[in-house]
Design brief:
Mean pLDDT of chain B: 80
Oligomer: heterodimer
Strand order of the largest sheet of chain B: 5-6-7-3-8-9
CATH architecture of the largest domain in chain B: 3-Layer(aba) Sandwich
Shape of chain A: globular
Structural class of chain A: mainly alpha
Number of helices of chain A: 14
Number of strands of chain B: 19
Order of helices and strands of chain B: EHHEEHEEHHHEHEHEEHEEEEEEEEEEH
Largest sheet of chain A: none
Distance between the termini of chain B: 63 Å
Order of helices and strands of chain A: HHEHHHHHHHHHHHH
Low-confidence stretches of chain B: 19-23, 35-47
Helix content of chain A: 55-70%
Strand content of chain A: under 5%
Mean pLDDT of chain A: 86
């Protein structure tokens, strides 16, 4: 390894050569999180690429990240707030719905984009080796930039509507993390399935739509009172996220409790199950994509 | 040195036929095929006839610092082998061990994003190939210089010419410093000058004592760069040994999978075929370059005076679709004339930049006008073509699945008619 020393790669020159064993893997396999960590710079570059490319050829660029939730909120405020007189836990309906839409949009966009991420990067997957998990992870994380922009919009609206922030705000990162794990968990399942069954791309828009109505985005969760609906409702981790956002920002609803613990549990199951399923399907990606 | 860098032990890869093109299933296919007994037996199903082995029982070892060439016809399993070793796909059977950091240049530029600038793409592609950011920063200037893209470095890659695109991609990959490097036909792109530069870079890499696995159709490049060569045929190793010995053996006519079979040469009272061959310069067995002409050479004896003798060829796709038939008297102002007894040699030149890099069939059609065929459809030979710098060579990926049966190098001219009229008003 003289060449390595010559070029100043001390670590390379001294480190023992790693050994890769290539053999067929059967059944469920390990997650290789260590390798994913070694490729963290790739994860960074893929995320950065997604952010950079997303609004590259659009006329108004990143403004889309603001327009999407803003206009959805205006439509909701008109139809659900004004016309349907939807209850909103005592805060103005626009703030109420935007506080739900901001995490929801992050989740929904992440889901629709990451579920197509592997197929969309087929040329990479079939030509170069790298931990495949980094693709859906990068797509999910790239949504955080849009999230940040729309969060600023929400802050602005809260300022206008004179909603005061409380110490509950400290909980917000935890709810965001829950949104990330839920979005990523579902994306891992869908992106791996999409490689083999292209039906997935037709399923995702429906899934997102149904999921939104199963989440208290346009209505308060206090509307769902009777069992067993209330318990079934708790199965949806996005309920925990949206409720959590409203509680920590607007002070509506209940403080974190059993329902949230349940959301976290479901979300973790979705994520871990998705990761293992993804790894199991991974070996066929290059052959079928 | 003297240690093993790569060892393969009975590596096999099985594909389902059709998996390459339409691998993904629609859910309805799965639902339609779902019967209870199938679910139970699925894992025990024996390999059916709709599966084939792209690689079977491939075993060999590569020493540290060795440059190994992998040769063979189209479909011999060369690319599959590299895909397995670079961990893109998994083998069905067997086991391989790789000692050292691996870098692979399977398809340069596959990580490029057209909207991003050359600079951004260097970082992105470097990361995809497994380089650290500090490493890329360190080599950035050398990469830009090697790629000769200069002031275009901050221009989106989609505005690059195909040559620039490819040069930049190779430059990033060439500056990867792995201990083991896999290269698949990278030199199959670009102009002659850049190919020479790439070969030079590879020679440099080889001299630094790194292990290189080099898959190529370019036998000259393999002979120059490689110490040893593995020759694959139909997924199996035919020969593994010193480069010159294996290449010499590979080039021997009897190894041509199915040349014109001399036992089928027609011989009757009027006519006898003495020799039939397809060649490109000294290369008599193929695969042939698409960018140079190929000659079909026939030597025959006329035993007594015949009227209207016509020798010709049919060029067909491997599915048996005849592309054209050509006779020696097609352009003759006085066809259907007498031919005196004696020995003749006929050469039909198939022009360059006509064939796609795939397999075609050439068959001999010899007959006497208004009398009958002497031979027709019996003497067939598959002919393989590969592309190095012919039509479309810049798009190596597209080459294999470009639609159409032939690839014509047509002369395109584009002129600017009016620049102002449609420029975007912002």
């Amino acid at each position: 390894m003289a060449w390595a020393a010559e070029r100043g790669y001390e670590a390379l020159a001294t480190a023992p050569a790693p050994v890769f064993v290539i053999e067929p893997e059967r059944g469920w396999v390990g997650l290789r999180l260590r390798e994913l960590w070694e490729y963290r710079e790739l994860l960074y570059f893929l995320t950065w690429r997604e952010v950079k490319v997303r609004y590259k050829q659009t006329a108004i660029g990143a403004a889309w990240a603001l327009i999407q939730p803003l206009f959805t909120m205006l439509v909701f405020a008109l139809f659900f707030g004004r016309l349907a007189k939807m209850p909103s836990d005592g805060v103005p309906y626009p703030v109420f719905s935007l506080a739900g839409l901001v995490p929801w949009t992050f989740f929904a966009n992440g889901l629709s984009q990451s579920s197509n991420s592997l197929v969309g990067n087929a040329n990479l997957v079939s030509k170069v080796y790298f931990p495949r998990l980094s693709v859906p992870i990068a797509f999910t994380l790239s949504g955080l930039v849009d999230f940040a922009l729309s969060f600023v919009l929400l802050m602005g609206l809260m300022l206008i509507e004179k909603v005061h922030l409380t110490v509950h705000l400290l909980w917000l990162p935890a709810f965001l993390l829950l949104a990330i794990t839920t979005s990523l968990g579902a994306s891992l399942w869908l992106s791996a399935l999409n490689v083999e069954y292209r039906d997935v791309r037709y399923v995702v828009p429906f899934l997102v739509q149904f999921w939104m109505f199963a989440t208290p985005v346009v209505y308060p969760s206090s509307l769902v009172k009777t069992e067993p609906w209330r318990s079934l409702y708790g199965l949806n981790p996005m309920t925990g996220v949206v409720e959590g956002f409203r509680w920590s920002l607007l002070g509506t609803g209940n403080p974190p409790g059993m329902m949230l613990a349940f959301s976290i549990l479901i979300s973790m199951l979705l994520l871990i199950g998705g990761a293992y399923y993804f790894r199991r399907m991974e070996k066929n990606f290059a052959d079928v994509i | 040195m003297g240690q093993i860098a790569i060892s393969l032990d009975r590596i096999g890869k099985q594909y389902k036929i059709g998996a390459a093109g339409l691998g993904y299933k629609a859910l309805r296919d799965v639902l339609a095929g779902w019967r209870p007994h199938r679910i139970r037996r699925r894992s025990k199903q024996p390999a059916g006839s709709n599966r084939f082995w792209a690689l079977k029982d491939v075993s060999f070892a590569v020493q540290h610092g060795e440059v190994l060439g992998v040769i063979g016809r189209n479909g011999a399993g060369k690319s599959t082998l590299l895909k397995i070793l670079s961990r893109i796909t998994e083998p069905t059977t067997g086991r391989a061990e790789i000692h050292g950091r691996v870098g692979s240049l399977l398809e340069v530029g596959s990580g490029f994003h057209p909207e991003l600038s050359g600079r951004d793409n260097i970082y992105l592609n470097g990361a995809i190939l497994g380089m650290r950011r500090a490493e890329i920063e360190h080599k950035f200037d050398a990469i830009v210089e090697f790629a000769e893209v200069g002031s275009f470095i901050d221009t989106p890659v989609k505005r690059y010419s195909s040559g620039m695109h490819m040069r930049l991609a190779f430059a990033v990959a060439a500056h990867l410093d792995p201990e083991i490097l896999f290269i698949d036909e990278v030199l199959a792109v670009g102009d002659a000058a850049f190919q020479k530069k790439c070969l030079g870079k590879m020679g440099e890499v080889a001299k630094q004592g790194r292990t290189v696995l080099f898959v190529s159709h370019n036998l000259t490049a393999v002979a120059t760069l490689c110490h040893k060569v593995v020759w694959l045929h139909q997924g199996q190793v035919v020969k593994h040994g010193r480069a010159d010995e294996v290449i010499a053996k590979y080039l021997q006519p009897e190894n041509s999978a199915s040349g014109f079979d001399p036992s089928q040469y027609p011989d009757n009272a009027d006519f006898r075929l003495l020799h039939a061959n397809i060649e490109q310069g000294d290369n008599q067995i193929g695969p042939f370059l698409t960018s140079a002409p190929v000659d079909v050479r026939l030597r025959y004896a006329v035993k007594r005076m015949v009227k209207g003798l016509r020798v010709g060829i049919d060029v067909m796709t491997i599915d048996g679709v005849t592309l054209w038939r050509s006779f020696d008297d097609d352009l003759d102002p006085l066809p259907n004339t007498f031919r005196m007894p004696g020995t003749y040699e006929a050469v039909c030149r198939l022009p360059e930049n006509l064939f796609l890099p795939r397999q075609y069939l050439i068959s001999l059609s010899i007959g006497i006008h208004m009398v009958g065929w002497i031979t027709f459809g019996v003497l067939q030979q598959p002919v393989d073509f590969y592309n190095v710098n012919g039509v479309n060579a810049n798009y190596a990926d597209e080459n294999h699945n470009r639609s159409g049966l032939l690839m014509l190098g047509l002369d395109w001219k584009t002129v600017s008619v009016d620049q102002a009229e449609y420029s975007v008003q912002l």
